[in-house]
Specification:
Layout (H helix, E strand, L loop, with lengths): L1 H7 L7 H15 L3 H12 L4 H28 L2 H20 L5 H28 L5 H16 L2 H9 L3 H22 L26 H7 L2 H16 L1 H11 L2
Helix pairs in contact: 2-7, 2-9, 3-12, 4-5, 4-6, 5-6, 5-9
Length: about 250
Amino acid sequence: MASIKSLLSPYRGLPKEIYIIFVARIINALGSFVMPLLTIILTDKIGLSKETAGLYISLSGLLFMPASLLGGKLADTIGRKKVILFFDSLAIILYIVAGLTEPSMTMVYILMFAGLAMFTAGPAHDSLIADLTTPENRSGAFALSYMGWNIGFAVGPVLGGILYKNHLPWVFIGDAFTALISLSLILFFIKETIGKTKEEITDEKRSLEKREEGSIFAVLAKRPILIYFSIFAFGYNFAYSQWSFLMPMQNQNI
C-alpha cells in the first residue's frame, strides 16, 4: 500500500484543470484510430506502394516542425485556447471530410492537413499545462497527461482495427468525435492562461520562464539551450515515430 501511495504522490494536489486535461487526453487517445492505421490505409485502401507511403509520411513529419513553431508563436501571441479551438476544430472537420471521401490521393492530402492542424495546436496544449503549474509540480502534471494518453492509446488502436476492415469511414469520424469531446472539456472547463506569461518572475530558479519579446529566431538566439533541446528532441521523436510506419507494415506481412 505504501508503494502505491508513493507511486501516486506526484499526481496529488495538482490544479483541477490538470485532471481535466488528463481526462481529455484519455478520451482523445481512445479515439486515436487514424494514426496507428495510417500506413495500412495508404497501402491497403488507397493502393500506394510502401515506398510512396513512406515518402508521404516522412514529408508530413518534416512539415510538422514548422507547424509546431507556428503553433508556439500563435499560442504566445493570441492565446492558448484560441489556437486550440481553431486548429483542433480544423482537424476535426478534416477527419470528418476524410470519412466522407473515397480512398484516393485526395484523402491522403486531407489527412496530411489534418495532421498539420493537430501539430500546430500541440504547443498550445503543452503551454496550458506549463501555465497551470509550478516548477515543483510541473513534471508530475506532464507525466499525468502523458499517462492519460497512454491509457487511452492502449485501447484506441484496437477499436480502430475492429472498424477498419468493414467500416473505414467510422475510423475517421470516430477519431473526430472523441477529439471533439476532448476539445469541449478544455474549452468549457479551463480558462485562458496566456495572462500568466505576463506576470513578473523574480525567482532565479524560474529565470528561463521569463517572457521574451521578438520573433522565434530572436528568442532562440537569446536562449540557445532551446536549440540544443530541439535537436535532441527531434532525434528522439524521429526514432520513436518509426513504429507508427514500420509496425503496421510488419503486421501486414505476418
